[in-house]
Amino acid sequence: MKVKIVNSQGKETSKTTDLAESIFSIEPNDHAIYLDVKNYLAHQRQGTHKSKERAEIKGSTRKIKKQKGTGTARAGSLKNPLFRSGGRVFGPKPHKYGFKLNQKLKKLARKSALSYKAKSEDILVMDDLQIAEVKTKNFMSVLNGLDLAYEKVLFVLPENNSNVYLSARNIPGSNVVTADSLNTYEIMNANKLVILEGALAKIESNLN
């Protein structure tokens, strides 16, 4: 699948590149995408919620009234969950929400997501992206050149570039990742993918 390469001003260059059919033209597997996105979002949850059970409540454990003759139910300490400010029965405890997925399924999910974007022609390949200094307006000029100023855009770089990342972080809808950290959720969440030419080879080596 041939696509034309554009520059940072959004103009087509004389160069073209091939998008590997084994990655960008497969039959998408929706269930694999669902599982990978669910796993990604589950790992974003902190899981630090906690309530105190009766053993953790501060207070005396003395018996608050006699066992019989009061006309009411038996009662022990004030830590009883039936009383106000008592412990909670089976309350939440800190735990992780993530679950394990094998690498084969994760790769299938990313290939499926990339194939969806390629099929809808939402992938742009850019020759290079250099930002000399950290300024939001420098990155905005790139978005304006690509006519993507009001889109949710994911830029995929071959390696970490702090100038590009810091210039883009204040722009709503714009996200910058490296080819090694590309994931299914961010691909599907973006309206457009801008992949640098150098990142294509890394994506292919990671997914093949």
Question: Can you put this structure into words, describing what you see?
Answer:
- The structure is a single chain.
- This protein is of the alpha/beta class and 208 residues long.
- The protein folds into 2 domains: 2-46 and 98-207, 3-Layer(aba) Sandwich (Ribosomal Protein L4, Chain: A), CATH 3.40.1370; 51-91, no CATH class.
- It is built from 7 helices and 6 strands; from the N terminus they run E-E-H-H-H-E-H-E-H-E-H-E-H.
- Strand 4, helix 5 (162-168) and strand 5 (174-178) form a beta-alpha-beta unit.
- The longest helix is centred in the middle third of the chain and has 17 residues, at 103-119.
- It is elongated and about 95 Å long.
Which key phrases capture this entry?
208 residues; alpha/beta; 6-stranded mixed beta sheet; 34% helix; single chain; Ribosomal Protein L4, Chain: A
Write the SSE topology.
Layout (H helix, E strand, L loop, with lengths): L1 E5 L5 E7 L2 H4 L5 H15 L58 H17 L3 E4 L9 H11 L6 E5 L4 H7 L5 E5 L5 H6 L2 E5 H11 L1
Parallel strand pairs: 1-3, 3-6, 4-5, 4-6
Antiparallel strand pairs: 1-2
Helix pairs in contact: 2-3, 4-5
CATH class of the largest domain: Alpha Beta
Name the shape in a single word.
elongated
- Under CATH, the topology of the largest domain can be stated as Ribosomal Protein L4, Chain: A
The averaged pLDDT comes out at: 92
Radius of gyration: 27 Å
Q: Helix and strand string, N-terminal first? A: EEHHHEHEHEHEH
Counting DSSP H or I runs of 4 or more residues, the number of helices is: 7
Query: Any idea what the CATH superfamily of the largest domain is called?
Result: Ribosomal protein L4/L1
Number of strands: 6
Going by CATH, the architecture of the largest domain would be 3-Layer(aba) Sandwich
**Helix share bin:** 25-40%
Strand content is 5-15%
- Looking across the biggest beta sheet, what order are the strands in? 2-1-3-6-4-5
> What is the CA-CA span between the terminal residues?
17 Å
- What class would the helix/strand composition place it in? alpha/beta
Give a short account of the largest sheet: 6 strands, mixed
Spans where pLDDT lies below 50 across 5 or more residues: none
| Domains (count) | 2
